[in-house]
């Protein structure tokens, strides 16, 4: 990574020796100062006074502590101001210095340290406990993971609470609600670069995600040329990506998409899948996936399939797919590589069908089935919806959530930056997990992806608005002004369309509320409210016009400004157009108002000419900025009632 992806700090974390010590007078921490951790932990309790961070610590590692986890803890402590480290193998009876103890719950040292810190040992997969307290005039901090993954998650929670020279006295007991949490690079259009994927994997790791599925639709050796071997250089690059994923406790899942041309009855095609997977095993891939989405399943690709499975129809297609998938699953089980994942041809809705029923009955129960919800792009997903999908497929499904993907016609010219919402708390009881299908724009996808991962980790404790604001702070490196500028910009990209007539999230709700207030105020005789409404909208216009420059100067995550460039350029013009419109509504001089409205229209027309970046987005189209709100209000403004000069 070119810089730290800390969610709440902008400073880079340096990998050098680290330490921790209790120093200075401790102060009580009010309940309102509970540290912000994303995803929200299952349980967090403040237990006492804040602990000051000093210069020296004793670090104890026990059980399964991998190099990346230890290095992460060291980087975190260094960023908190620690300078020197000593190492030990256990805790003394009485602490003679401050200690940081990290390890897995099966180690005796961790059991003893957790007891002294007042922390219960984790029992759930990927779970962890984190406790910090003052002890014997020193500090004791314990990170206990149920397994190596859980310990790594604990280190990332430590990263979020150790800053500014202090750490809160806290006890955290945490574990994921869903076993699979991550993203699937499954969109059409320009695939991400290897560098973007590596950065995305590190971003996922900071959120305690555990899965990245490699399935770009326009990656030729995974779809169009799926039978052909990868060029040696491409395989080497993929190997570097797999290594990075493994280091960051992210399961790299390789997906092949043979559906457009596969002959299910041909042993050569089954062998082609086996050969492709075998090649990926040589670079460290251990999890695999067969995608059978977006294909014709009522027409065979070869005559042999009709002879083997009968006339083409959805039931026969399900039987043919199950036959191949079962063979691949048997290979994985034999090699100790776990379960295969597949996305079916009927990946949407929760209704029972001949295809779903047949697939559910004939497919090896170990194979994980993906499902996109009640539609390809669902407006909402309830627990009952997921329960219906479980019934239809005969097993819990892994949700492929098509948010914030922007590769279909209804999304031409849009970024999707609204909060992740309208997925019901309690879905963890009926889903195997969630993976988000992101946009062509990797960094711009992160605000939405952060919500998806936070929901998958703790669906019952998920706060969409709070996590959305946290995503802006993350991009801003904690800077308040840049955070607010991003939220202003996010509002202009709030619309989340579906394949139907109604979006599942509205466009520009904040800006719409302000323009509606002006419309309502100008329809009344309340001059005070008219003035207040126009003043509020004028301030919003100024904020909108200034936001792009603030974002360009203040965003710390590389890539966001480049990806959003035409949207930022258009936003600045729309903000100026809105300011002129408000000024036109504030004047009683007809000629002045007409001139201001005309200039606003000119700027709006200019802003509407911006296009998406060629080759970077599918589909291409004019940039949309708060469409249906800004453009409509500026168009309608000349017909609204003017505010008298006496209350300007």
Notes on the structure:
- The protein starts with 42 loop residues before the first strand and ends in a 12-residue tail after the last helix.
- The strands form three sheets. An eight-stranded parallel beta barrel has the order 10-11-12-13-14-15-16-17, surrounded by four helices. A seven-stranded mixed beta sheet has the order 1-9-6-7-5-3-4, sandwiched between helices. It has a two-stranded antiparallel ribbon with strand order 2-8.
- It has 19 helices and 17 strands.
- By secondary structure, it is an alpha/beta fold.
- Helices cover 40% and strands 13% of the residues.
- Strand 14 (341-343), helix 9 (354-362) and strand 15 form a beta-alpha-beta unit.
Total beta-strand segments = 17
Beta fraction of the residues?
Answer: 5-15%
Largest sheet, in brief, is:
8 strands, parallel, barrel
Q: Quote the distance from N terminus to C terminus.
A: 52 Å
- Summed over residues and divided by their number, the pLDDT gives a mean of 92
Number of helices: 19
- Low-pLDDT stretches are 1-32
The gross shape turns out to be globular
Q: How are the strands ordered across the major sheet? A: 10-11-12-13-14-15-16-17
Tell me the structural class. alpha/beta
Radius of gyration: 27 Å
Helical coverage, percent range: 40-55%
């Amino acid at each position: 990574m070119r810089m730290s992806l800390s969610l709440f700090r902008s400073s880079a974390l340096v990998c050098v020796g680290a330490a921790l010590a209790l120093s200075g007078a401790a102060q009580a921490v009010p309940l309102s100062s509970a540290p912000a951790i994303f995803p929200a932990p299952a349980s967090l309790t403040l237990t006492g006074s804040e602990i000051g961070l000093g210069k020296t610590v004793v670090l104890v590692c026990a059980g399964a502590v991998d190099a990346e986890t230890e290095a992460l803890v060291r980087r975190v402590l260094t960023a908190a101001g620690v300078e020197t480290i000593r190492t030990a193998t256990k805790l003394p009876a009485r602490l003679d210095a401050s200690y940081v103890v990290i390890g897995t719950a099966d180690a005796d040292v961790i059991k003893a340290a957790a007891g002294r810190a007042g922390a219960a040992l984790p029992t759930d997969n990927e779970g962890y406990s984190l406790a910090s307290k003052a002890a014997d005039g020193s500090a004791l901090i314990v990170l206990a993971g149920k397994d190596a993954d859980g310990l790594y998650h604990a280190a990332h929670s430590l990263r979020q609470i150790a800053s500014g020279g202090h750490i809160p006295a806290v006890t955290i007991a945490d574990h994921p609600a869903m076993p699979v949490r991550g993203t699937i690079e499954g969109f059409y259009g320009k695939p991400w670069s290897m560098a973007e994927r590596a950065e995305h994997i590190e971003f996922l790791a900071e959120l305690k995600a555990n899965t990245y599925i490699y399935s770009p639709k326009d990656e030729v050796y995974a779809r169009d040329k799926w039978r052909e071997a990868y060029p040696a250089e491409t395989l080497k690059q993929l190997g570097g990506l797999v290594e990075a994923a493994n280091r960051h406790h992210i399961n790299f899942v390789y997906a092949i998409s043979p559906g457009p041309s596969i002959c299910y009855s041909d042993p050569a095609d089954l062998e082609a899948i086996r050969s492709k997977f075998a090649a990926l095993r040589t670079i460290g891939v251990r999890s695999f996936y067969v995608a059978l989405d977006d294909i014709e399943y009522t027409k065979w690709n070869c005559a042999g399939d009709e002879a083997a499975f009968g006339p083409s129809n959805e039931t026969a297609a399900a039987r043919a797919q199950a036959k191949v998938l079962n063979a691949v699953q048997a290979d994985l089980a034999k090699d100790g590589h776990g379960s295969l994942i597949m996305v079916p041809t009927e990946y949407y809705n929760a209704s029972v069908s001949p295809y779903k029923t047949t697939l559910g009955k004939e497919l090896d129960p170990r194979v994980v089935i993906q499902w996109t919800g009640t539609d390809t792009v669902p407006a909402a997903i309830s627990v009952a919806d997921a329960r219906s999908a479980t019934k239809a497929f005969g097993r819990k499904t892994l949700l492929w959530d098509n948010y914030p993907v922007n590769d279909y016609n209804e999304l031409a010219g849009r970024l999707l930056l609204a909060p992740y919402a309208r997925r019901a708390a309690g879905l963890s009881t009926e889903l195997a997990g969630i993976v988000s299908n992101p946009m062509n724009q990797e960094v711009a996808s992160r605000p939405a992806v952060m919500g998806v991962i936070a929901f998958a980790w703790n669906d019952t404790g998920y706060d969409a608005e709070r996590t959305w604001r946290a995503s802006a702070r993350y991009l801003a490196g904690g800077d308040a002004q840049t955070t607010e500028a991003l939220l202003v910009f996010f509002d202009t990209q709030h619309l989340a369309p579906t394949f139907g007539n109604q979006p599942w999230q509205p466009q520009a709700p904040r800006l719409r509320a302000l323009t509606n207030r002006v419309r309502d105020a100008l329809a009344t005789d309340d001059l005070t409210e008219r003035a207040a409404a126009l003043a509020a909208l004028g301030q919003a216009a100024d904020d909108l016009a200034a936001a792009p420059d603030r974002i360009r100067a203040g965003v710390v995550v590389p890539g966001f400004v480049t990806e959003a460039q035409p949207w930022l350029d258009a936003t600045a013009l729309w903000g100026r157009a809105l300011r002129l419109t408000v000024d036109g509504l504030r004047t009683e001089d007809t000629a002045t108002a007409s001139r201001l409205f005309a200039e606003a229209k000119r700027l709006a027309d200019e802003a509407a000419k911006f296009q998406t970046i060629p080759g970077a987005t599918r589909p291409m189209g004019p940039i949309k900025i708060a469409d249906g709100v800004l453009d409509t209000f500026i168009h309608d403004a000349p017909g609204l009632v003017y505010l008298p000069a006496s209350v300007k």
